[in-house]
Amino acid sequence: MLSKVNNQIEIFLKFLLFIFPILIILGAPSLNFFSVVFSLYALLNFKTLKKFEIFDKKILIIFFSFIIFIFPYESIDFKNSFIKYLSFSRFVLMLLGLIIFFEKNNKENSLLLQIYKIYILILSIIILDVLIEYYFGANIMGFSSNYRGRIASFTNDELIIGYIYCFLTLFLFTFIYKKINNYYFFIISCTFIIISFFIGERSNLIKLSLLIICFSFIHFFYLKEFKIKNLFLLISIIFIFFISLYGFSKNTQQGQKLFNTNELIITKNDELSFDIMGRFYKSNHAAHYLTAYNIFLNYPVFGIGINNFHKESTKHKYENKKLLKTNFRSSTHPHQLYLEIASETGLTGIIYFIFVFFYPVFLCLRALIKNKQIYLISNLLLHFYFIFPVLPSGSIFGTNYGIPFWFNLAILLYYSKNNLISNLKNQK
C-alpha cells in the first residue's frame, strides 16, 4: 500500500516538472503550489540527505546560511519582512527537494531528457502563438497587448512572455544544439534572436542575444574544432543581430517600442541619438535604481528588510528633482537584482548571494573542464540570465522570478555535482 502511494507521488511530481513552464504562465499561485510540494518532499526526505553524495557540507552551509545573513535585523517593518523571510525558506527547501527527486528518478538522464522534449513542444507552441499575434494582432486565445510594440501571448496583460521565452530558449539551447550541425545552429540562433525582437521586451532581448553570442563562441571555439568557416558563422550571427537591431528600430512597431520611445531614444532630425545617460535619467528605471542605491547608503549593513522597498521609497528624502520620473520611484522592488539585494538586505545579504550566485558557477566550470557535459552549458547560461548585472530584472524574493531561478539552480547543482562525483569514481 505504502509503495503504491509513493509511486503515485512520484508520478505527480514528474507531472509538475513536465508542466513547469505552463505553471510560470499561469502565475504566482501555481508556482507557489509547485514550490510547496517540492519543499514538503524535501522535508519528508530530509533524514536521507546523508545517503546522497551530492549534498556535501559546503552546499548545505551555503544554502541554509540565509537564516543568519538575510534576517531582517534592521527592518523598517519587521512583521512584513519576517513573513517574506520565512517564505524565502521554501526556495531553499524546493531546491533540495528537486535535487533529491532527480537523484532518485533521473537514471542515465532519462527524466531530464523527457523534460527537454516536453519543453521543446511548449516552446514551439509559444513561438507559434507569438508569430500569430505579431501578424494578426491577437494570439490563439484572442489575447492582445495594450502596449504598442509588445506581445502579450498566453500571459495576456502580464506581459512576461519574453521572460518565459528566454527561460525556455536558454534551458533547451544545448539540447537542441546536440541534434543539429553548424549551419542549422546558425539558423536557429538567428531565429531565436529575431523572435525575441517580435516579442518586444528590450531587457530580455539584450540578455538573450548576448548569451546566445557567448554560447556561439563556446560552440565554435571550444566544442567544435576551429575552422575559418566557423569564425565566419559567428561573425554572421553578431552581424545579423546588429542589422536586425537597426532594421527593427526603423521599420517595426517592436523596434519603435524598443528604440524610439522617449524613455529609450531621443530622436533628432530622424536620426537615432545614443545619449545613453541622458535617456537613463529620464526613465523609470533611473528613479528606481538611484532610490535603491540611496536606501543602501542609509542602511548599509542589514538593509531595510525584505519586501520593504515600496514603503521606504515613498519617503520624500529619496525625491530627486534631477530625475524626470522621480515621482515614479516607488515600486514593489527596484527592478534590478543587485540593487534589490543591497537595499533590502545590505552587505550581509550581498555576501550571502555572492556565494549563492557564484559557487554553482565554480562547480559548473570545474565539471565542464573535467568532463564536457554539454547540457550543463544551457543551465549555466540560464543562470547568467537570472544574475545579469545592470539590466532590469524581476524580484529575487518574488515568486515569478525567484522560483524559476531556484529551479534552474537545482538542475545546475545536480548536473555539476553528479559530473564531478562520476569523474572522481572513474579516476579511482
What's this entry about, in short?
The chain is mostly helical and 428 residues long.
Structure description:
The chain has 428 residues and is mainly α. The chain has 2 domains: 50-89 and 275-428, no CATH class; 111-273, no CATH class. The chain is 69% helix and 1% strand. It has helices at residues 2-18, 20-26, 28-44, 57-64, 66-69, 78-105, 110-136, 161-177, 182-199, 202-223, 228-251, 253-259, 276-280, 284-298, 309-313, 337-370, 375-386, 399-427, and strands at residues 267-268, 271-272. Strands 1-2 form a two-stranded antiparallel ribbon. α14 packs across α16 (337-370) and α17 (375-386) packs antiparallel against α18 (399-427). Residues 261-274 have low confidence and may be disordered.
